[in-house]
Design goal:
The protein has three helices and 13 strands. By secondary structure, the chain is of the alpha+beta class. It has two domains: 195 residues, Sandwich (Immunoglobulin-like), CATH 2.60.40.150; 42 residues. The longest helix has 40 residues.
């Protein structure tokens, strides 16, 4: 059985429009690329929408993977719209419902769909032995909630280094995108023993990916600004509480002036 036609509009170029005149020479590019291993990097992933071959309930598991190490203990994760980070290298979307018929699927969307992974210094290096990629696994859920889900397909996306478009902009300042692009990720079935079924699609996802150097200075400014906001709020509440007590005392004295004189 062939996969149904996916109702995605044809993607135009996902290449970043860097002016050719400003493109550094190969030697300079290589020198700048080597600096990546000394950077703390942030990788954004957002699942814009998805479509699966069969109607049902699905969720996506995202996992950072590396060819060079199995130690992911220093990776931090942010689940949007929250601003806090916590240690984790795996993320889960919310559950989305695939509607429509098997041969006429409809796009579905996830509520929890955007995440940022903060990769520690030295995790990414500019050589083929340190490939870092994102593993996306699709799980289907039964309608009767009888299980926690069954894996039905997976796809991989290169984080760094990238050998295809868009190019990595090594001259980007901290906090600016080194690349940003939209990509349709095919989800290949992982079940079945027949070779001809190993590469069959179970669905596709349209995702946006971005990589940048972590801007520690900007993060510090935001933290200081938030601390100042909290300090002012605390001071305002303290003043309001003091005014409230003062007003209550004045009302008490007006109600019983003789007691106030005593």
């Amino acid at each position: 059985m062939t996969s149904p036609r996916i109702p995605y509009p044809e993607l135009k170029s996902s290449r970043l429009d860097f002016p050719e005149a400003r493109t550094p020479n190969p030697h300079l590019m290589s020198s700048q690329a080597e600096k990546v291993e000394h950077m703390v990097l942030e990788f954004d992933v957002e699942v814009l929408d998805a479509v699966f071959n069969k109607p049902g309930r699905y969720f996506i598991k995202m996992t950072i993977q590396s060819l060079a190490t199995k130690d992911y203990s220093q990776i931090m994760l942010r689940k949007w719209p929250a601003e806090t980070y916590y240690k984790d290298y795996e993320a889960l979307t919310s559950v989305a419902t695939q509607k429509g018929k098997e041969n006429e699927p409809e796009l579905c969307a996830f509520e929890d769909k955007k995440f940022t992974f903060r990769l520690p210094e030295g995790f990414c290096k500019h050589d083929r032995n340190h490939d870092v990629y994102l593993l996306l696994e699709a799980f289907s859920l039964p309608s009767d909630m009888s299980s926690t889900g069954q894996k039905c397909g997976e796809g991989k996306v290169a984080i760094y280094p990238r050998t295809n478009a868009p190019r990595t902009n090594y001259i980007a300042a901290p906090g600016e995108d080194m690349y940003r692009h939209t990509q349709v990720v095919s989800l290949l079935r992982t079940s079945g023993t027949k070779p001809d079924k190993a590469e069959m699609h179970c669905g596709r996802m349209r995702c946006q990916f971005a990589l940048r150097e972590y801007d520690g200075i900007e993060e510090k400014k935001k933290r200081q600004k938030e601390e100042e906001r909290r300090r002012r709020l605390k001071e305002q509440r303290r003043k309001e509480e003091a005014d409230k007590k003062k007003n209550a005392q004045e009302e008490k004295e007006l109600a019983n002036p003789f007691q106030a004189r005593e």
